[in-house]
Amino acid sequence: MKTNKYRVWDKENKEFLPYQQVAIFGGEAMKVECVGNLLIIRNGNSENFVIQHYVGLEDKNEKAIYEGDIVDVYGKIAEVKFYKGAFDVFDKENRPLG
């Protein structure tokens, strides 16, 4: 069974956010901080964040592959995208390789 995991890219600070700093509400990511029993939303501008879904596979180094990752597929550089209900890889001209 596939594990539902996500990571979130902060476009403004150009970094992935640790899962402890992210809440996803209605498909939008927000940076949060827990202080005692309070959940504080630090940045309500979800346009600064890109949610990337785990595709259920690992690379040759056993590192999880996420939507948006750049991968080498038999010598061709490709980006992982969700397309027509499944994950696929696309070349630089946005043509599916799978």
Descriptive account of the structure:
The mean pLDDT is 84. Helices cover 0% and strands 57% of the residues. It is mainly β and 98 residues long. A hairpin with a 4-residue loop joins strand 1 (6-10) and strand 2. The protein is elongated, with a radius of gyration of 16 Å.
List keywords for this structure.
mainly beta; 10 strands; three-stranded antiparallel β-sheet; 98 residues
Outline of this structure?
By secondary structure, the protein is mainly beta. The chain has strands spanning 6-10, 15-17, 22-25, 28-35, 38-43, 49-58, 64-66, 70-73, 76-83, 86-90.
In the sheet with the most strands, the strands line up as 2-1-6-7
- Number of H/I helices: 0
Beta-sheet strand percentage? over 45%
Q: H/E series, N to C? A: EEEEEEEEEE
List the helices and strands and how they pair.
Blueprint: E1 6-10, E2 15-17, E3 22-25, E4 28-35, E5 38-43, E6 49-58, E7 64-66, E8 70-73, E9 76-83, E10 86-90
Antiparallel strand pairs: 1-2, 1-6, 3-4, 4-5, 6-7, 8-9, 9-10
